[in-house]
Design goal:
- The structure is a single chain.
- The protein is of the alpha/beta class.
- It contains 7 helices and 7 strands, in the order αββαβαβαβαβαβα.
- A 7-stranded mixed β-sheet has the order 1-7-6-2-5-3-4, sandwiched between helices.
- It has a single domain (9-211), classed as Glycerol-3-phosphate (1)-acyltransferase.
Length: 233
Amino acid sequence: MAGAPKPNVVYRITKLVARFVLGLICRIEVVGREKVPLEGPVIIAANHLSWLDPPAIGLVLPRPISYIARADLFENRFLGWLLPRLYVIPVERGSGDLAAVKAAIRALRGGMAFGIFPEGTRSRSGKLQPFKTGTAAIAIRTGAPVVPVAVIGSDKIWPPGGKIHLGRKLKIVFGEPIDLGGYSGKLDKAHLEEATRQIEAAVAALLPPEYLPEEYPTSSGKLPETPENAGLP
């Protein structure tokens, strides 16, 4: 597999613009950024609360990141020019999970960081939703490590269906990379579910208790608060 590509000029300029705009909207705190491998394929798996999550993660990540997006967005002349230069991969609406998995595998085999939200959609309650198995399948097929990421506070800044609230804090916490090499070749439902729960638990461990469902399975019912998953002031 290829090493991490250098960001192109458009990506670098867009990142500067995003830094300025997000700086006007919110205060960003980053924990554990050094845990992200600087080279080689890696999957960035995060909880999903707001439209802010993808650009915010891309802004603080120390390397370019690729996402997937609806193919119809590329029909716009400007977006059709811009999105490929931001490493966004088009996936046809209605093509299902298989197309997304194939797109992710292509990006990872090119040495990219690939961003994914395993819940599948934004959480309207703010609570962590069950992860789908696609992330584990991609990791097992490519051998790429999975870096768990907790996004905290974006739901207070730009909630689903709501307005943007300025001046609030957005915290992004990167966890230790997860190696799923022990599942190599094991793509049956049972092993995919097991690997998925491992990724989900790693993200949950980075979140403050208020972001976890009351019934979330831990020994105490809720994860203990730590410096990394501490709530917002």
